[in-house]
């Protein structure tokens, strides 16, 4: 499930970013979502965009895409600030599946892509720890939904970048793209565009010889 983590700015709403890396031959996935946060006058925060990019574990090229918008159920009306920041308008979420339904479709997609095969080792890659440590578990707990085991371990791309480059990317994807002389793809705070930026940064670091390792601690 890509941009600066909300945790870096006091919990303000941001797109959720992450990716899934599988090896030796299974693909990584970038998976950012966009959400409405408490600082926008909405509590609890709710995920409103859920994109995933599946990457080839050797080439880091995109192999498959999962992308859905999510109907918020606690606060179904988007705030003007949310729309201004993310580009997501009310019509894009009205009538869309709930988070529970989207998570069910994620599981179906993961199975179709072979990512639930016990012989395939995989892990998500996120831009920060917020998405999988706080945001998804928190909303699932509020709604009484289970959190799949594959969401419980991840690589924080900010930490990976800092290990590789020797400096912390305070402004998330923008700093990482700048540090690697990469052009930022698309619109900041767009979930699907953030995914593409995460994938591009991962590919660049991998081509430089960086080896990704899990950064999260066991739940």
TrEMBL record:
Entry keyword annotation includes GTP-binding: no
Keyword Magnesium among record annotations: yes
Single GO term (MF): nucleic acid binding
Keyword terms, alphabetized: Exonuclease, Hydrolase, Magnesium, Metal-binding, Nuclease
Record-linked InterPro entries: 3-5_Exoribonuclease, ERI-1_3'hExo-like, Ribonucl_H, RNaseH-like_sf, RNaseH_sf
Pfam families found in the cross-reference section: RNase_T (PF00929)
Superkingdom of source: Eukaryota
Exonuclease domain residues: 41-211
Cofactor(s) annotated in UniProt: Mg(2+)
Subunit structure: Interacts with PRNP.
The name this protein goes by in its record: ERI1 exoribonuclease 3
Organism classification: Eukaryota, Metazoa, Chordata, Craniata, Vertebrata
Gene, per the UniProt record: Eri3
